[in-house]
Amino acid sequence: MIHMANQIALFFASYPKDEAVAGVADHLQKFWEPRMRKQITEYVAHGGSGLHEYALEAVKRLH
Amino acid sequence: MALIQQTDYGTPKRNSATLVTLEIDGKPVTVPAGTSVMRAAVEVGVQVPKLCASDNLEPFGSCRLCLIEVEGRKGTPASCTTPAEQGMKVRTQSPKLSKLRMGVMELYASDYPREMFESSASGNTEFQQMVTAVGLRDVRYGYSGKNHQSAEKDESNPYFEFDPAKCIVCSRCVRACEEVQGTFALTIDGRGFASAVSAGDKPFLESECVSCGACVQACPTGSLLEKSVIENGQPDRSVVTTCAYCGVGCSFVAELKGDEVVRMTPDKAGKANHGHSCIKGRFAWGYTTHKDRILKPMIRAKFTDPWREVSWEEAIGHAAGEFKRIQAKYGRDSIGGITSSRCSNEETFLVQKMVRAAFGNNNTDTCARVCHSPTGYGMSTTLGTSAGTQDFDSVEAADVIMIIGANPTDAHPVFASHMKRRLREGARLIIIDPRRIDLVKTPHVQADYHLPLLPGTNVAMINSLAHVVVTEGLVDEPYVKERCDLVAFEQWRKFVAQEKNSPEAMEKFTGVPAADVRAAARLYATGGSGAIYYGLGVTEHSQGSTMVMGMCNLAMATGNIGKNGVGINPLRGQNNVQGSCDMGSFPHEYSGYRHVSGTAVRESFEKEWHVPLQSEPGLRIPNMIDAAVDGTFKGIYIQGEDIVQSDPNTQHISAGLAAMECVVVQDLFLNETASYAHVFLPGSSFLEKDGTFTNAERRISRVRKAIEPMAGLADWEATMALSNALGYPMHYNHPSEIMDEIARLTPTFAGVSYEKLDRLGSLQWPCNDKAPEGTPVMHIGGFVRGKGRFMITEFVPTDERVTARFPLILTTGRILSQYNVGAQTRRTPNNTWHDMDVLEIHPSDAEDRGIKEGDLVSLASREGDITLPARISERMQPGVVYTTFHHAMTGANVVTTEFSDWATNCPEYKVTAVQVQLARHMSEWQEQYLETRKQTTRIEKESTAND
After folding, report:
1. Domain interval for residue A32
2. What is the pTM of this model?
3. Cβ atoms of B405 and B544 closer than 8 Å
4. Which residues of A touch B333 (CB under 8 A)?
5. Measured between CB atoms, does B627 come within 8 Å of chain A?
């Protein structure tokens, strides 16, 4: 899951940061099933070690 | 339906805008200039006798049977080679012509098996029809003269035989092999009386012949004839249907005798195949009645128990009860469903409906997940819709054809023949593929550029090509300005223009000389209409979606979308990949690619289905397996898909299934996934049901029931029964009613109905009020999403890296004679050509390891290892090996990894770091597989009154 989130972040990383973080968050919201989003949200809540900076910020924006 | 007799116009249609009017047997007729007199005659209902002519071949003028008289001209020219002219007056019947034709037929008959031409029971060939047409009753010369009647038959091909005794050397077979198929396997050897059809002086089976059947179809004498006709006799009824193999979606005429299929012949009216076929569709249909078919539902408590045959009612009731029990215990989201791209539109629509409405979640997915899901994501993001932009006929207008990560002659053979015709006419060819596929150099076709990149570097390559276009001033600026989002374009232009994206900088990744990349880019951008065709060599990568976007960027920048002869054309692997995606099989979207979170769309489904629906995306196939291993996903309904054999990392898939409490498999055979199932529902083959398939060009074609379902229920009926047992009522009397519901709910299908499909033959979506007869080419005048959106496509090397321990890259794919997991083709004589998977390895890599042709080798990755025989092949580049996944025993996906596309989770089948070394025996997994398979396929037969 960390690997997948980082892959997504690397795709959007070519865009300006705000756009990139929004892109990652939108992708996770649209394509990740709630239990997956819950797992990564919990992981971030525990520090989110190993997550790309943009993925980390994007997960914090998930609802 | 009675046996269909298709009209043969004798010579091909001409498309000249200039028309000429002539008179044939007193009947006026107007035709395009260039049309033959023979064809013009057929237009007014006059059949001129013929043997060497056929409307799918250029006129040849050799049989001398189609002679005519033209007022004011001397002689009796052949009508097939005589062009219609303004004012011409033609006679096709006269005493003189009758005498000439009689004489010609008499000569042919003198060297033809006497019993064949004297007996109508021996076949219904054109030769026999001509005997009747000219009134031949006897041969004045007798039959004892020098002849070919003792010539030996060639029965080497498992599907057809060649009997030289019946051959009149009309060359139709040779011309069909050349003009229709483009293989050039046949020729006429010798001269005069010694002339004979030859497959290169070899038996057919050992020749270059690809068993497409074009020669058999073309033969007017029965010299080349299907063995199934020889064994079973002539068919007496036929049904037009659609092939159940690849994404070309060929139209076929199933010819039957009673309920037995005698042969499948390609349908001339088929708009995807225009009367052509390949070995699979034409001949490999025997699996439908194979002894391995499971025809009774079965259940068992544990997957290690023997199967117990039960009634449909008991099996359905058991499955429904288990699913309800699991949901009550583990929650609503603990179960899901998967369909296959081999299922029809109606079946896949019904399964996803059942998951969303009866299961109450969005855990629905389809096998397009593991093949073309990046196509959907990439094309939707850039262009606005998840489908190829062109029809197949568009290739006839292409000036430059770029093939990326596809091997059409093996995987999409009928379209490959179409493409080869255009290439022989002079279209230029660029091939981007790690392997030297056949199209790189094949008779009368040679690629201008073959860019043999290293697997995993597609995005580096596409960025390099774009870099050349942008930095050398090759952008179609007016096109971009008019049709594309200019902010996104400038962002992209700036990105690809960076030196890091130049062919020179990327050469270290791709391994392709920069000069070749530059030349190919210039050719694509400036060579006229440029068309990109691609396959799974694009999508099955960790950057699959990025690459699809990269191709769309390149096509938009050069103005190569939105007209005939151009486009981005995904070659879909299976017959209904496009359709299964269209039907809302993915967990995040409804039919027509609309996200489940969209309130208005969701409400339209809720209103039609009378049930509240979830607004959150569900689990994808790999997510389902992960969740099963984690213990939160406990039950699954799998229709027609074999995830154990086809999905990556077999051990992980098996572990996921083994962790579930109820696995329901619906299939023709006890496939590998069924080894882990608790309920087996017998599937119905494409011959046993009605429905539709949607091919790679968005063409919706009818599948028509030729025989009754062998297990009693068609697949859609079984799904309906399961849904009803789950408490969500479904009532359809016929699949046409399912299509009506799809049309009501899906704007791009709004104009589709069985009535219209039957009337027009097929329809390409979008089909609605704006395009009532469908849309062959998309994005004309503007993109579906509005302005075309360029996306930045940074190259990110895959995390699957070669090391000293795993120094080679494995890439996988399929071959001509077998199809995907082989469930169908392995149960046909296609095994004659490929009875086991082999590992293709470059001579230098083989030599380094002491490997010789045929040696058993171990193929090991970080995930697992298997053994298989080696084939030394210069098709491979050093450092890259290749195998297929057609045989379960091989277990190719034991080796592949779980790395996947960042956007869609499409597995990275095309890049696995491996080591190859000599081996003495099968791998541990293979030994275990045999044991597991033996244990999990035991069947306790149903008790009967006689027991």
Report:
1. 2-60
2. 0.96
3. no
4. 33-35
5. yes
